[in-house]
Design brief:
Length: about 210
């Protein structure tokens, strides 16, 4: 089964992808992982992508799509795959449709105010990188491993989170309409807890078999 996960930053796509991929026995594919692997392997596409990344530029669609085409043709994708973070635009979605048949698109929906609270509440240890959340710290401010004061990453600050969500709504959210019209979209509530979200996703995927 070939699956796409959609959803705003902080919706839990990565976490749910790990759960679902383990259940279905298919690989999780992210463009970031593909780019890093291609660059490490020094493939022709990887070296081409590296020139843009080294210059601080976005990797063009044609390069990313070539990477996706190469990745989904790999042996471990014979039973299917789960794309997390791709496509990001309708143009990419159209290109993907010419590469592989998509069986189901899962949109993990979470309200913006919930996402801002979820993301802006994250804290990390600057030494070991251990993640925390203010809701579970109960007023504590130090890492339980290193005793170092926890910090908030710049991309988790409320104003940055709001900007990331605005970009998502402008650039990526149109994919919801696109895949809805294709009859492939199913939306699940991403704010109901890890297990219940996983169950809802598996139910939606089962209906597509």
């Amino acid at each position: 089964m070939n699956v796409i996960f959609l959803g705003p930053p902080g919706a839990g796509k990565g976490t749910q992808a790990q759960v679902i991929c383990a259940r279905l026995g298919i690989p999780q594919i992210s463009t970031g992982d593909m780019l890093r692997a291609a660059i490490e392997a020094k493939s022709e596409i990887g070296l081409k992508a590296k020139t843009f990344m080294d210059a601080g530029q976005l990797v063009p669609d044609d390069v990313v799509i070539a990477l996706v085409r190469e990745r989904v043709a790999a042996a471990d994708c014979v039973k299917g795959f789960l794309l997390d973070g791709f496509p990001r635009t309708v143009e990419q979605a159209r290109a993907l449709g010419s590469i592989a048949k998509i069986d189901r698109v899962i949109n993990i929906s979470v309200a913006d105010d919930v996402l801002v609270k979820r993301l802006s509440g994250r804290r990390v240890c600057p030494v070991c990188g251990a993640p925390y959340h203010v809701d579970r710290l109960h007023g504590a401010t130090q890492c339980t491993v290193d005793g170092v004061t926890l910090v908030q990453r710049d991309d988790d600050k409320p104003e940055t989170v709001l900007n990331r969500l605005q970009v998502y709504h402008q650039k990526t959210a149109p994919l919801i309409d696109y895949y809805q019209k294709e009859g492939l979209l199913r939306t699940v509530d991403g704010s109901t807890g890890l297990e219940s979200v996983s169950d809802a996703i598996l139910k939606a995927l089962e209906a597509a078999r």
